[in-house]
Amino acid sequence: MKKIMAVNAGSSSLKFQLLEMPEEKLITTGIVERIGMKNSVFAISVNGKKQEEVLDIPDHAVAVSILLNKLIELKILASFDEISGVGHRVVHGGNKIAESLVLGDDEIAYLEEIVDLAPLHLIPNLTGIKAFKKVLPNVKHIGVFDTAFHHSMPEESYLYAVPYDWYERFQVRKYGFHGTSHKFVSARCAEIMGKKPEDCNIIIAHIGNGASICAVKQGHSIDTSMGFTPLDGIPMGTRSGAIDPAIIEYMMNKKNKSVKEITNYLNKQSGYIGVSGISSDSRDLVAAAAAGNHRADLAIEVQAKRIVDYIASYYVYMGGADAIVFTAGIGENAKTTRSNIINRLGALGIKMDEERNDCRGVERLISTDDSKVKVYVIPTNEEVMIARDTLALL
Ligand code: ADP
């Protein structure tokens, strides 16, 4: 039995889970928020009860020491030596990293080299890794990369039809994200169907605030909707998803804004919030649409249409599919969104069982027995996947 910490460091937050492996038993979970701001918050769940404290936490290194000392103080750990390994969620592994790996000096230097590919995420990820390494120097630190699962994509999927030297010299290509989730959910789906991953084709719809669709053929990602960055693909809570790139210059001229400002609109003021003008949260949109708000309804429909475009195209690309899986905040919880998507796939003989679909956050088959493709809800668990990969590399 080993205790493994799964860490997700953001720019001002640090989420963690301590798991007992290989049992995959959650020991504790928590979050440090508002790092570097006044009134930082440290929250931890002890025996299912949430404890919260307001503290001053100037940087990630302090957050890590406070968090580890709390584990001792709350008697969750007797000493730091009980932690066998730390698995760090890292958003980007660039062109080279195709699997989880031990984070030594060379690996960290490589991540620093590619920081431009995802500065908003990679910089805090690196800060978190360094802070943990400093406090736990004798423990192995493993990087688990959002992009790694998609390294199996063929050239025809990941290359953009732009001048080839953009790819060769500047690493412009599709990377894809949410890989840890797509890997976990597709493996679990194969298990539920009683098949080996290499014997099935699965389409995963990871729909949360961020959302991406993935075609998993015989256990490997062969295409996904997010691209060079997580802005591509389907519309999300605040992101536009794919648009005609010529819109950027056009709107720069119309609004007299910089590239940066327009990109900010596409990242922060688009998707659900952009179309509805109400909210980026799917619950608010579902409620507003039910009350007759046309733009809330439109925001949901625009997204559903694009999701169906991807699912149908991946179905054909893989030569058929055994299953479609819904996961993440919306995929796991929003039955009307799921129905709306599946009901548009009738031409492929895919049929939703509305009674089975009446569920939230549970693992369940939601298609009819005569549906040509099985449809499941499978809750994702990126932390367990991080802990599994960490354990494997210890
Ligand atoms: P991310 O991890 O990308 O930030 P999540 O996977 O946590 O996002 O998903 C957040 C989304 O899930 C929000 O839009 C939220 O409204 C939605 N969600 C959560 N619970 C429900 C629910 N019961 N019904 C509909 N949507 C829900």
Question: What secondary-structure arrangement, pairings included, does this model have?
Answer:
Elements: E1 2-9, E2 14-21, E3 25-33, E4 40-46, E5 49-55, H1 60-73, E6 83-90, E7 101-102, H2 105-113, H3 119-135, E8 140-145, H4 155-158, H5 164-170, H6 179-192, E9 201-207, E10 211-217, E11 220-224, H7 246-255, H8 259-268, H9 271-276, H10 282-290, H11 294-317, E12 323-327, H12 328-333, H13 335-342, H14 354-357, E13 364-365, E14 374-377, H15 382-393
Parallel strand pairs: 1-6, 6-8, 9-12, 12-14
Antiparallel strand pairs: 1-2, 2-3, 3-4, 4-5, 7-8, 9-10, 10-11, 13-14
Helix pairs in contact: 1-3, 6-15, 7-8, 10-11, 11-13
Bound molecules: adenosine-5'-diphosphate.
Report on this structure.
This protein is α/β, with parallel strands linked by helices. It has helices spanning 60-73, 105-113, 119-135, 155-158, 164-170, 179-192, 246-255, 259-268, 271-276, 282-290, 294-317, 328-333, 335-342, 354-357, 382-393; strands at residues 2-9, 14-21, 25-33, 40-46, 49-55, 83-90, 101-102, 140-145, 201-207, 211-217, 220-224, 323-327, 364-365, 374-377. The strands form two sheets. Strands 5-4-3-2-1-6-8-7 form an eight-stranded mixed β-sheet, with helices on both faces. The longest helix has 24 residues, at 294-317. The model has no long low-confidence stretch (mean pLDDT 96). The structure holds adenosine-5'-diphosphate. Adenosine-5'-diphosphate (ADP) is lined by residues 208-210, 237, 281-283, 286, 328-330, 333-334, 360.
